[in-house]
Amino acid sequence: MKPFLTFCALCCFAGLFRLPIEYYTFLRILVSIGALLVLYNTLSFKQHYFSIIFLVILILFNPVFPIYLYRKSLWIPIDTITGILFFLINFVEKTEHKKEEEATEDPSEPALSIHQRTVSRDRIINPKKPKEE
Asked: Which residues contact 78 (CB under 8 A, 6 or more apart)?
């Protein structure tokens, strides 16, 4: 997914130049698919701030009901910001994924073999307090 999002960002930056209309149709489809992927991942990781941002990108770039702004000067900042956001989501997901891996791998507790482990339901607990002498 990371290479695809990087490709989306690079295509957004390429959209800053004067290109044929077919490229911008391709860009709408590509950015919509990328925004859908990011939207799905951010909703599953409960990152609602990125979900809202990429929902707006999905609405703006959707190829089914396209939004035409008719001026290249309006699309240049939108393409730039969208490309930066695709690069940003690559970086943010990578750091959060590493944090999750570090949290699951706790090196402070060494792994015990099956015979050395004690299960709480198998312990015998004396309900009476020991007599003090």
From this structure: 60, 69
